[in-house]
Amino acid sequence: YGSLPGELHMFDLDCGSHSSGLGLCLSGNRDGARGRMSVYVSEIKPDGAAATDGRVRVGDELLEVRTTS
């Protein structure tokens, strides 16, 4: 992801203690310049892990999501 503009932040969110999970609403857009689909945060639910953590913001682009169980 080094060629992308802006800052890159990588972090883990624990959604195990939140009944609504991550609490993110997402929207997508085909990015012709990069030739791929982009996924952005369009809303953050107040009772989800993302709101509790506070680092994810509306407008952030998700580059990768990994799950662990």
Automatic annotation (TrEMBL):
SUPFAM superfamilies for this protein: PDZ domain-like (SSF50156)
Pfam family for this entry, one: PDZ
Segments forming domain PDZ: 10-69
Lineage: superkingdom: Eukaryota
InterPro entries the record matches: PDZ, PDZ_scaffold, PDZ_sf
PANTHER family listed in its UniProt record: INACTIVATION-NO-AFTER-POTENTIAL D PROTEIN-LIKE PROTEIN, MULTIPLE PDZ DOMAIN PROTEIN
Protein name: PDZ domain-containing protein
Species for this entry: Cirrhinus mrigala (Mrigala)
